[in-house]
Amino acid sequence: MPNGQWNGEVARCDNKDNYCPDPGIPVNGMKNSSHYEMGSKIHFQCRPGYAFMGSDVIECLPNRTWSEKGMKCIGPYEFDNNDRVSEILKVKVEGIARQQIRELKECHLASHSIWLQRTHESTPSKLILDLNYPKRFILYFVFDTSHNIRERDFRRTVEFAKAIIKKVGVSEYGARIGALTFGSNAEIAFLPTNYKRTEDVLRALDEIKYT
């Protein structure tokens, strides 16, 4: 393709006896297992010099699909393409959203099971962000921590984000904030489930490092 990427998906040879289909191996990557039964987990990693895009661990689900897809190993110069950067960040955020939905369902099922058993056990303590509150909304900030911008300009973007957060406010049942950094690859600085107070979010932003 003109953007230096292959079109379509990675070719794979599948066996009809597999519970989940062969997920394939990303170009310039490797995987640690060839077991595709329900509940099996596959770990991926990239060759030296490449950054992973997507989830590096996938699980074979009861519906015979994998928990994630679209794993890729990205070379150091592929991040200069703006469309590519947008795609990488989109995959990262969508992965977080899918994980939150799965964990929220698991929490509700576990809580219902405990109620049916009429025990005095506490409900699951996983950090789940319930989206059903009417005033709930989530903001994600993305910070460029590469050397494409000067550290002074990076600090200005952090201060700008902090000014917005002070106006919005963060609370247990209101707004929540997440942050990602983008240098050689996309990384999660913190999730919306991590902090329930404005001052904690501001402190976490100050701790983001410029590389």
Automatic annotation (TrEMBL):
<dbReference type="InterPro" id="IPR036465">
    <property type="entry name" value="vWFA_dom_sf"/>
</dbReference>
<keyword id="KW-0325">Glycoprotein</keyword>
<dbReference type="InterPro" id="IPR002035">
    <property type="entry name" value="VWF_A"/>
</dbReference>
<dbReference type="InterPro" id="IPR000436">
    <property type="entry name" value="Sushi_SCR_CCP_dom"/>
</dbReference>
<protein>
    <submittedName>
        <fullName>Complement C2</fullName>
    </submittedName>
</protein>
<feature type="domain" description="Sushi">
    <location>
        <begin position="18"/>
        <end position="75"/>
    </location>
</feature>
<dbReference type="Pfam" id="PF00084">
    <property type="entry name" value="Sushi"/>
</dbReference>
<feature type="domain" description="VWFA">
    <location>
        <begin position="138"/>
        <end position="211"/>
    </location>
</feature>
<feature type="disulfide bond">
    <location>
        <begin position="46"/>
        <end position="73"/>
    </location>
</feature>
<dbReference type="Pfam" id="PF00092">
    <property type="entry name" value="VWA"/>
</dbReference>
<keyword id="KW-1015">Disulfide bond</keyword>
<keyword id="KW-0768">Sushi</keyword>
<dbReference type="GO" id="GO:0032991">
    <property type="term" value="C:protein-containing complex"/>
</dbReference>
<dbReference type="InterPro" id="IPR035976">
    <property type="entry name" value="Sushi/SCR/CCP_sf"/>
</dbReference>
<keyword id="KW-0732">Signal</keyword>
<keyword id="KW-0677">Repeat</keyword>
